[in-house]
Amino acid sequence: MPAPSDAEPRSAIDLLLARAASGSTRGNRTDGRVLALAIEGGGLAGVVSGGMCVALEALGLIDAIDAIYGTSAGALNGLFTATGQAAKGATNYEDTTGRWFANPARLLAGKPAVDLEYLFEEIIRKRKPLNPVALAFGPAFFALATDIASGAPVSLGSFDNIDKVMRAAWISCSIPYLSGPPMLWDGRPMADGSLAESMPYRAAQRGGATDVIVLRSRPSSRRKAPYPKRVLTVLRKRAYPGLADLVEARTAKYNADAEELAQLTAERGHIMQIAPPADSVHVRQLERSRAKIRAGFAAGAHAATAAIGVPHADILWTPRAYVTVDV
Question: Is 272 helix (H, G, I), strand (E, B) or coil?
Fold first, then answer.
């Protein structure tokens, strides 16, 4: 790992490396700065930012992070990273390539197209349980949600138990109608955080971060196209009131944030992004190919190591055997 200069770290990535080199730990910082990760989701495309989390974890850099903010699948990546289990969390993406997880035909029977309940209750809670002790001592974790009534982003945090933090991550991933009825937080109906902030670097700043490293699931050049009118028409007829307007407005928000992040990264200041190359494999939101999932994971890991200046890393994707536990 390259040694930082003696000067005060200028960029967020310089700060990450300087802290790692000095052995800085949370609660004993001397630099007067607050460093956060902001993690983009994107359905199964979140495997790319998940690969970045695994690389940072493998390099021992998570101790240099003060807080983690994640949106949608990025919230899941962030939660497993905050508990020291990024490598375990990345295996969720292979587990969700089958039709049991996402099947639009289920809408015809009045059932959710995306089965988040099975993912959170069966796959994660019973087969890949989170470490409650690590949650208490790792970076502060926040799952970004969208208040459906106001359209405002909400950072869900300050968790005192695993049930609450899992519910927050679940809410961050949920889109009413596609994944079931809206979920409530403090009595308010919430939805997927990406409807408000796909790359939650502003949420990190509102939370007090002075420096933010944004982990992207898509290349920095990627821009969203408007949603088809037929999709918006279906949502207006069948989904929770106001949801279609949030979905329609998402394109402009996403593209504006992507433009700003490109500029901020070029300036190498307190907000920087790590993104996969433009020619990386395209992982769809509901990807079926496990080969593409693994390629996306590798693209993310390689992008992370390149951004922080360490040699190209081959991250081994290790199959795991999980035993279902009674909870």
Answer: strand
φ, ψ (nearest 5 deg) of residue 100: -60, -30
Give the three-state DSSP class for 192. strand
Torsion sign (Cα): 15, 18, 22, 23:
positive
Of 71, 42, 38, 79, whose CA–CA distance to 271 is shortest? 38
Tens digits of residue pLDDT in 253-307: 999 999 999 999 999 999 999 999 999 999 999 999 999 999 999 999 999 999 9
pLDDT, tens digit (0-9, with 9 covering 90-100), for 85-124: 999 999 999 999 988 899 988 988 888 999 999 999 999 9
For residue 137, the tally of other CB atoms under 10 A from its CB is 12
Rounded CA separation 292/299 (Å) = 10
* Non-local CB neighbours of 287 within 8 Å, separated by 6+ positions: 43, 44, 45, 97, 293, 296
pTM: 0.93
What is the spatial distance between Cα 82 and Cα 280, in angstroms, rounded to a whole number? 27
CB 120 within 8 A of CB 92: no
Find out whether 46 and 74 touch, Cβ atoms under 8 Å: yes
